[in-house]
Amino acid sequence: MKSSLEPTPALTPPSCPINAPLTEMPGKQSEEGPVEAGASEDSEEEGLGGLTLEELQQGQEAARVLEDMMALSAQTLVRAEVDELYEEVRPLGQGRYGRVLLVTHRQKGTPLALKQLPKPRTSLRGFLYEFCVGLSLGVHSAIVTAYGIGIESAQSYSFLTEPVLHGDLMAFIQPKVRRQTPRRLRVPLPPHRNVLSSLGRRNHSHCVGPPRASPTRRRPLTGPTGLVELLGLFGVHRHHRTHTIHYGDPPGSIGSHWTPIKSQALQGHPRPRLTYRPYRVTRGPA
Ligand SMILES: Nc1ncnc2c1ncn2[C@@H]1O[C@H](COP(=O)(O)OP(=O)(O)OP(=O)(O)O)[C@@H](O)[C@H]1O
């Protein structure tokens, strides 16, 4: 169960007395007055903070009900020390604003969860807000039931809920981790499209072992100097998408665009990365 004393925009109770007018509750209408139904859609959405008129009205109605509930609960708070009424069994958890204890009713022995919020850190209004939101939501079958018992002690405010003794739901939720496929079942990733196109093949059998020297008709890997093919055989790849190589260029003139991957092969890398890119072989300036 979440404590809502944190100043979240939607749930934080405004700092006004319990009997403050309804306009001070969350979901109140803006000071410009009620929004007219005939306003244009854009300006309506801006004025309502992204809510539809219907959603805004529902929010205002819920705020009114909550305000009434808080006013009634303030009048019916039990003023007592917790240990007069309940026996502490063990702590159930610790939240940011207080602790939750497993207690039993001293006379009936009923087990209950008691959420205790220390007064120095919790205002009466903040406590009532937490208590009443819990009461409202607790009717849902998937949310811990809150009992309508609020206690004011010298040092704390407390309220009681149904105890959940099988642990925190969060402990049962597995983080989303990608399941590892056993190595023997793994399918090798297809090579980069350019490898296929530059080698003129549609399967990736050529990825294992040295690149084939045979040029294709579509994209020859070699010019008359044999330069491009030579670079490929020596395991050279480049980072950029295209590069113009002029016939007759000595290998040294390729410059820093080219990175040797020979070292990978020498270090026993099982599959030297063959990252051929489309080469553009042109005649150089005369
Ligand atoms: N009814 C309950 N039954 C069993 N354990 C509970 C119950 N309510 C709370 N707890 C345990 O106590 C812990 C603290 O609960 P609490 O409601 O104070 O804070 P929270 O909702 O976890 O966080 P926050 O401090 O932000 O409100 C929970 O994480 C949970 O482990």
Automatic annotation (TrEMBL):
The lineage of its organism: Eukaryota, Metazoa, Chordata, Craniata, Vertebrata. Residues 1-47, 187-222, 264-286 are annotated as: Disordered. One of its GO terms (molecular function) is protein serine/threonine kinase activity. Keywords: ATP-binding, Nucleotide-binding. The keyword ATP-binding applies. ATP binds at residue 115. This is SH3 domain binding kinase family member 2. Residues 86-286 form the Protein kinase domain.
